[in-house]
Automatic annotation (TrEMBL):
Chain segments carrying region Disordered: 110-133
Keywords, ordered alphabetically: Membrane, Transmembrane, Transmembrane helix
Name of protein: Divalent metal cation transporter
Main location class: membrane
Classification via InterPro entries: NRAMP_fam
Membrane-topology annotation of the record: Multi-pass membrane protein
Residue intervals passing through the bilayer: 36-57, 63-84
Protein localization: Membrane
Length: 133
């Protein structure tokens, strides 16, 4: 018998989707008060049950999603550093003057380059031993 995935993932997905679309959300609300929220929980639960019947190995999928996340974080961090410096984007929440010229460029590019190099470095030993294919 296939195992169903964790119900916490369905709940966290429902909270994220409901907040993104500004739907009423929360397990403290009745289903008729937060229909879309509970529908998202049901859809995520049914999707995870359907995945249980496939040949997808969940640990391998988790590993590859972490690798993809590690690769995507570098350009996203670089964009965030550029965005925090733009008053057109952030309005009154723009980074203060003492942060902008030196710190944001040096610190932001340092963090981006380190995270960009860390993803392949973490993956290489696993790929070399054949633990992850």
């Amino acid at each position: 018998m296939p195992k169903a995935r964790s119900p916490q993932i369905a709940g966290s997905a429902a909270y994220a989707v409901a907040e993104m679309f500004r739907w009423p959300e929360g397990l403290d609300r009745r289903p008729r008060e937060a229909k879309a929220f509970y529908a998202t929980i049901a859809a995520a639960t049914l999707g995870s049950i359907a995945l249980s019947f496939t040949a997808l190995y969940p640990i391998r999928a988790l590993h590859w999603s972490a690798v993809i996340n590690g690769i995507l974080v570098t350009p996203l961090m670089a964009m965030m550093v550029m965005m925090v410096r733009s008053p057109r984007i952030t309005g009154r929440l723009t980074a203060p003057w003492w942060w902008q010229p030196w710190h944001s460029q040096r610190l932001g590019s340092s963090c981006s380059s380190h995270s960009g190099g860390a993803a392949p470095a973490r993956h290489a030993p696993l790929a070399r031993t054949g633990a992850i294919r």
